[in-house]
Amino acid sequence: MKSIKGPAVFLAQFMDTKPPYNSLDGLCKWAADLGYKGVQIPTWETSLIDITKAGESKTYCDELKGKVESYGLEITELSSHLQGQLVAVHPAYDIMFDNFAPKEYHNNPKERTKWAVEQLKSAAKASNNLGLDVHGTFSGSLLWHTAHPWPQRPQGLVEKGFEELAKRWTPILNAFDEQGVDICYEIHPGEDLHDGVTFERFLNATNNHKRVNILYDPSHFILQQLDYIQYIDHYYDFIKMFHVKDAEFNATGKKGTFGGYEDWIDRAGRYRSLGDGQVDFKTIFSKLTQYGCDVWAVMEWECCIKSPEQGAKEGAPFIESQIIQATEKKFDDFAGTEIDEKKLKKILGI
To answer: pTM above 0.85?
Structure first.
């Protein structure tokens, strides 16, 4: 078994134009003062990291790493969720997803995708330069609009979609493989990789590429009404990143899984601050520890009720209380004896 590392915090949702949330120094001091031991850095936030430069310069990465460590923190992982999303975008979403790319790539999906791919390849090199061996991202989606199909999907559409998704990702996966870094896809509604079956489809489509892995976040399974505990039993070998995020699902006679186009606060399924939702973290931490999952417990704050400041303040001690120091001995070792072949045979009556 292996103890989970943490607590750490994903910086993406805390970015702001006001200090301390507008710089890496400010966020690191803030996180350290709250009791966090690590930070997960979103690579699209240029005030935190220049991902192109990080991919080209070990010196730059050493300086970046040194800055974070000067606050008593570690960089747990880099994240490229927004760039990963742009690897595969159905045309229906082009206008809205343009916001994830620089303006010079707006209204030009092909060039936007090329930019995203290069960003990811830089992230692979940057991760290696920083001494990291895992990286978090989204898969993007070509098929999500057909998840609840009407009209019905034509035969072969799903297979074709995953074939194309794998085609786009394989060069990126190979680039990560060259750097010795695993890609951990956050299994998330809206992405083509949104549950266990779709993860397996993608894994098969990439010929079981060894760099295809999972960023586990139970909150997204609450919203899908998927068994997030059993999920660990199925996929623990692939779980190499962990977002600690809470959620709740309260169906009514008027709304359910799809949300009825309501704002987050009015949906049946909604994200909550740690401890305020329905996720059974005690069992999750037990399972991940039992299976020896070598992960950082990284808080991701998304709540429609509680402020980010309060959520962050409560997050570090909450995670700390869940981390299990894995035992190195069995509780009944005191009653054990030396192996004695004759004694064993006598006990068995042989």
So the answer is: yes
Under 8 Å between Cβ of 227 and 195:
no
Tokens 């609450």, located at residue: 222
- Sign, CA torsion 264/269/271/273: positive
How far from chain centre, in Å, is Cα 65? Answer: 21
> Which residues have C-beta within 8 Å of that of residue 324, sequence separation ≥ 6?
3, 4, 285, 286, 289
Find, among 195, 197, 194, 192, the residue nearest to 169 by Cα.
192
Query: Which CATH number do you get for residue 141?
Result: 3.20.20.150
Range of the domain at 303: 5-348
Could you tell me which residues are beta bridge partners of residue 241?
215
Task: Report the pLDDT averaged over residues 326-335.
Answer: 72
Q: Name the average pLDDT for the chain.
A: 96
Structural contact between residues 124 and 176, judged by C-beta atoms closer than 8 angstroms: yes
How many domains does the chain divide into? Answer: 1
